Structure prediction request, 87 residues.
Amino acid sequence: MYCILVYDVASEKTGKMLRLCRKYLNWIQNSVFEGNITQIKLQELIFEAKKIMNEEVDSLIIFTTRDENWLYKQVIGKDKNPLDTIL
Prediction:
């Protein structure tokens, strides 16, 4: 499935959350990630994120769709991390 993930956590937790999300998805901008992920890997990510965050004040928002082609993406301004970069 294709996933867009956005988090908002306390500043002292952003580094840990950033490293966690980068293990599973592609960094797009600040606290925004996207990419293909299996249901199992998404559940792992959520499980690990809950260890980092305080659910009373922090948030993790996840949008999923079956296929990236079902989603129209438009970037206005600088694309901070274009995904067409070949490693």
In short: The mean pLDDT is 87. The CA atoms of residues 26 and 86 lie 13 Å apart. Helices lie at 14-24, 39-52.
